[in-house]
Amino acid sequence: xVQLQESGPGLVKPSQTVSLTCTVTGISITTGNYRWSWIxxxxxxxxxxxxxxxxSGTITYNPSLTSRTxxxxxxxxxxxxxxxxxxxxxxxxxYYCARDGGNLGRWFAYWGQGTLVTVSA
Amino acid sequence: xxxxxxxxxxxxxxxxxxxxxxxSASSSVSYMYWYQQKPRSSPKPWIYLTSNLxxxxxxxxxxxxxxxxxxxxxxxxxxxxxxxxxxxxxxSNPPTFGAGTKLELK
Lengths: 121, 106
Hints:
- The complex is a heterodimer.
- By secondary structure, chain A is an all-beta fold.
- Chain A has no helices and eleven strands.
- Chain A has strands at about 5, 10, 20-25, 35-40, 45-55, 60, 70-75, 80-85, 95-100, 110, 115-120.
- Chain A is globular and about 40 Å long.
- Chain B has strands spanning about 5, 10-15, 20-25, 35, 45-50, 50-55, 60-65, 70-75, 85-90, 95, 100-105.
C-alpha cells in the first residue's frame, strides 16, 4: 500500500528556512506517471498547493510561491523534500505531501498525515 | 488561477435527510474532485473524475456536474458524514481547492 510520511522541525523563526521531508513507501517515486506534491493547510483550513516533482524529475511550482520554494528528491531513499525560505507567520500551516491519481485523474489520491510548521520567534 | 467557490459554507442535516453542496468554478474545468476531512485528520480522497467514488466511500454519496458547476450529494445523511468537504480542480496549473463546506449533524 502507498504511504507517505512527512517530517520536519515543527518550529521555525521568522526569516529562516524550513526543510521538510516526505518518505514514501509502497511505491518508487521514479515509477509510473505520478506527481509528488506538497500542499499546505492554514489555520482556518484553506488548502494551498505548493508544487510537485514528477516521476521523471521535472518540477512545477505554484507561481505565488516559486520565488522562495525548492522541491528536490533523493531517489536512493525514496524521499522528496520541500525547502521554503524567508518564512513569516503567514507560512504557519500544516504541510502535507501527496501523490496524484496518475491515470485516474489529477487529484491527490494519497496523503501523508501532515506536519505542523509554526513560524514564531 | 481558477477560483472554486463552495456553497453553503456551513450546513446541517438530520439523519436520513438528502444533502447537496455545490462547487462553482471561475472558468470551465474538465473534472472536479472532492475530499472529506474530519478534525485532526488529513483530507481523504472522496470523489474523483467528477462522479467516481474513491475506495471505501459509501454508495449514498454521488458527484455530478460539468463546466463551471459541480455538486456532491448524500442521498441519506448519516452521523459519520459530518465533516468538511472540499472540491479541487486541476484542469490548469496551479491546482486549486474550494474553501470547504462544513456539514454538521442536526
